[in-house]
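tool_call: predict_structure(chain=1)
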Amino acid sequence: MNPAVKVVEPSGILDGTKANEFRQEISEHVAKGVQMILIDFKDVTFMDSSGLGALVLALKTVRAAKTQMCLCSINEQIKMLFELTSMDRVFDIYSDREDFELALGSE
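tool_result:
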């Protein structure tokens, strides 16, 4: 894995109770000058609108710092949520971490 990439691995349910913690973690990585953040959803079982809102705010923070953020390993529920809200067009989503690393290596 490229050292300029920081992997964030939320777990369980990404909802209002975890949203602030999640956003804060992303902001800390941005403040440290991380070039790219990969959010690996492999351990997230469910995400609600609060979790989606936290993800959108995190993306704004990341973009304001001229950093990149990608997602991988989203489950069917999260995929459906993204498609219903058209967020699948906003985020760079990879099927898994290996797919992300292959894409990163080809740049």
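agent: The longest strand covers residues 36-40. Proceeding to next step.
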